[in-house]
Amino acid sequence: MIAGLTRRLAPEPAMKVAVYWPIRAEPNLRPWMATLHAADAQVLLPVVIEKNQPLEFHSWSPDCRMARGVWDILVPADGVAVTPDVVIAPLVGADRAGFRLGNGGGYYDRALALFEPRPQIIGVGDAGCLIPTIYPMPWDIPINEILLSDGTWLKPSHMQRSTHCG
Questions:
Q1: How far is 165 from 1, CA to CA, in rounded Å?
Q2: DSSP string of 50-97, one letter each residue
Q3: CB within 8 A of 81, min separation 6: which ones?
Q4: Is the distance from CB of 87 to CB of 122 less than 8 angstroms?
Q5: What is the pTM of this model?
Q6: Which residues are registered as beta bridge partners of 58?
Q7: Where are the domains of the chain?
């Protein structure tokens, strides 16, 4: 998965990329986060400030102080909200229209709805996470692309296989 992300999204200095700290069976992108940081891209992690409110994205570096946030997920201990250029969102499920299921709560959707222009949103997940529909609600924000663990890239506009980045 990391190789596919690197080929599709070459890190550039000053690029602001929101990733996530993996929980449960989410793909572990921490090595890629370190690569982005080494390339002088700004790596951001989602931080829940208050339950049922939009999350914020705060700067992360390999040596930053981390704290336990909501649901005991590690987050940067200090920081201010930064607007990302790209958001890498974990997928529990996704449908062919580009709507995603995460771990619940709607935090990504609330946050992404606030950004204008909206950042590029890439969902990453297991090769078996595609489902016919998630039955999206009016507030669900569609993603731009999907990268699956088998290296397959999908574009929700037509949700056809675009490339294999295995």
A1: 8
A2: STTS--EEEEE-TTS-EEE-GGG-EEESS------SEEEEE-SEE-TT
A3: 56, 57, 58
A4: yes
A5: 0.92
A6: 45
A7: 2-155
C-alpha–C-alpha distance, residues 4 and 153, integer Å: 8
Position of tokens 């229209």?
97
Structure tokens at 7: 């080929």
Residues 85-138 have pLDDT tens digits of: 999 999 999 998 999 999 888 999 999 999 999 999 999 999 999 999 999 999
Return the structure tokens found at 120. Answer: 């590029």
Question: What is the C-alpha separation between 97 and 111, in angstroms, rounded?
Answer: 20
Measure the CA–CA gap between 165 and 2, rounded to whole angstroms.
10
Q: Are 102 and 138 in contact (CB under 8 A)?
A: no
Report how far residue 56's alpha carbon sits from residue 84's, in angstroms, rounded to the nearest whole number: 10
Topology of the domain covering 2-155: Rossmann fold (3.40.50)
